[in-house]
Design brief:
Elements lengths: L1 H22 L5 H26 L4 H30 L10 E7 L6 E8 L2 E7 L5 E7 L5 E7 L2 E7 L14 E6 L4 E8 L2 E6 L4 E9 L2 E6 L5 E16 L4 E7 L5 E2 L6 E4 L2 E4 L7 E17 L1
Parallel strand pairs: 2-6, 2-8, 3-7, 3-9, 8-10, 9-11, 10-12, 11-12, 12-17, 13-17, 14-17
Antiparallel strand pairs: 1-4, 4-7, 5-6, 13-16, 15-16
Length: 302
């Protein structure tokens, strides 16, 4: 029994070392896939020998064999993909391929624009400066994003969503969603995404409302100088950087304690859960921000 426990322990240690080396990149994926694909029958031979010599096998051995056989299914396609991509670009680490869907909408008398977005992990950027109502280039791997436009007089709404089940393909990479909007229309943005990076350069836009829900990552927003603006930002462990014109009165409500911030150093006064600029009531331009969930590291620049 004691020798059995020693053997099981050694087997688990070897498996753990192999997975650690693979996870840390010490073993290239093509080497790991080759090992698994070529030597998995040896595990069945080992299993048979254990049955003969020990009269049976432990639960640990069965688990290791099953995991290894599952690995054949996972590493087989990975190896074929890696080999193909490596042959196309020798010496360059392969990255997953993505396609890009391009959309464009004309102004057509629109004065108000609402953008509704939903996608998984990746990078989202929105900026002004388009001569059209809106332009977009959206990366995808397998399924083309949906794009729906509704017009009601001078009001237009654009909804772009990533199909359910769409994931970063094998080999890594990232989805980039890039938007450019017209600076002359009143703008509302509602975005829901997974972990990643958000970069909104709205300094020249006529922003009215902003609602962002994101996973862990970095969010950078440059606000314009508009009469009345509101923003709600929620997410996971998020680093938030806000660029706000000095002439804009600011009120920030944090429903959870902030891990780190420079709000008071930038002249905002803490009143309960709120951080308010001294000139908020008298300012011609006002911005109210509601921070919730895991937003923790907040920096503002004025």
């Amino acid at each position: 029994m004691r020798h059995s426990r020693i053997f099981d322990g050694i087997l688990l240690i070897l498996l753990g070392l192999f997975l650690l080396a693979l996870n840390q990149g010490w073993i290239p994926v093509q080497v790991a896939s080759s090992l698994v694909r070529n030597f998995w029958p040896a595990l069945l031979i080992l299993l048979g020998l254990l049955i003969i010599l020990r009269g049976g096998v432990s639960f640990i051995v069965v688990v290791v064999v099953v995991l290894s056989l599952v690995g054949v299914g996972l590493f087989g396609p990975a190896s074929r993909w890696f080999t193909t991509e490596w042959s196309r670009n020798p010496g360059r680490m392969p990255m997953a391929r993505t396609d890009t869907a391009v959309f464009s909408e004309e102004l057509q008398g629109s004065t108000d624009l609402a953008i509704n977005l939903g996608f998984g992990a990746g990078r989202l950027s929105i900026e002004g400066g388009s001569q059209r109502l809106a332009e977009a280039s959206l990366d995808y791997a397998n399924s083309r994003p949906s794009w729906e436009v509704k017009r009601d007089g001078s009001r237009t709404s654009i909804t772009a969503k990533q199909p359910s089940g769409e994931r970063i393909p094998m080999g890594g990479g990232s989805f980039d969603w890039r938007f450019k909007v017209n600076n002359s229309v009143n703008l509302d943005i509602n975005a829901s995404m997974g972990a990643g990076r958000v970069d909104l350069d709205l300094q020249k836009a006529k922003l009215r409302g902003l609602d962002i829900s994101a996973g862990a990552g970095d969010i950078k927003i440059a606000f314009p100088e508009e009469p009345q603006m509101s923003a709600r930002i929620s997410g996971g462990a998020t680093n938030l950087e806000l660029s706000i014109p000095a002439s804009v009165g600011v009120s920030i409500r944090a429903s959870n304690p902030l891990i780190a911030n420079n709000l008071q150093r930038e002249g905002l006064v803490k009143m309960g859960d709120n951080y308010i600029s001294k000139d908020f009531e008298s300012a011609r331009s006002k911005l109210t921000i509601d921070l919730s969930a895991g937003v923790g590291n907040v920096r503002i620049r004025r």
